[in-house]
């Protein structure tokens, strides 16, 4: 099989160095493309919350030879407990290896996974930090990009937008698209606190509901001796206005946002609330965002020279548990279809969208009533919630409902593209053997 050099295969620029961008870059570089990743932040962002690695996402990381490293850095979370203000457990749901539970078999901090992917790709990919795209121009020669912080303009064959739910690059590339971000009526704030709060030092996550649609989630990270905390609140028009104003470019200030969130939760009657809020006020990694889905009507421009992937194109929301799976799977399939259809980038992009659309549609179908059902506004509503959860846990119905309403993380066929098949055979020590009956796509292409 002939190996293409990067100059022969083409030039690709990826916007975003989180999870999606490096995975796409890895496989595109493996296929012989010259890949550059541009990242707005000054370095890889090593903060963030726990994320699930399920189904095809794990298979793809296995094919990259990274499963061992990922497993060595998991949070070791045992499951989720719903508690009352005294810390008493009302219902508990342990890890389900099959994925039909809140906690996946592999839970890893987002920053740890980002670091693993960066280390695996930095010798194969050009990374440019503290830079972002300001202008996109398409013509027959490709895509000409201009940048905000002094990087000279570049012309590439394909631009991959992988910079998340709030992607500015997406807004530049698709200015005429209808509103793509669907607000679910909830906001969340995320931060890390040192140590493990009392009652959470046994490896179990704690979910505490307070009236007015509020929730505190504490997820222990025993490997780092820290806790990842998120605050959640169902919004009213007044709350939504205050939260949006706090994040506007003209007024955005982390300390003001932290004070705002402190005011929302100061009367939440869990014994650990004061400790958590005090730690939040000085947390350097604090950030807040609306809970939303991205539903981009089309994922590429008409020329096929610009394409979106991951949260930038189809964020399923953090409450779905499918964001990482969609991101990694989408990145892999995009790279594979581009390589399989070379040198026709437009055909590759179209094939990627055709393969991923059904999977995305399934992953974005949330449990009926989500997220309001899990965030009652009254003490009585919380009592009813705990009653139902205890019943589901005791009877085993939780697993049945999880299997019914949780998107299957391997719900589509995962092709073995030519570039990955050759690499896969050389990594048998770390990869999981797959059925020889699976179809290998584009065996004559790639490297």
Automatic annotation (TrEMBL):
Listed GO MF terms: FAD binding; oxidoreductase activity
Superkingdom of the organism of origin: Eukaryota
Kindly provide the name given to this protein in its UniProt entry.
Answer: FAD-binding domain-containing protein
Question: One Pfam family, short name please?
Answer: FAD_binding_3
- Which species is this UniProt entry from? Exophiala viscosa
Where are the membrane-spanning stretches? 380-401
Q: Which InterPro entries is this protein grouped with?
A: FAD-bd, FAD/NAD-bd_sf, FAD_aromatic-hydroxylase
The UniProt keywords, alphabetically, are: FAD, Flavoprotein, Membrane, Oxidoreductase, Transmembrane, Transmembrane helix
FAD-binding domain mapped to chain residues: 12-340
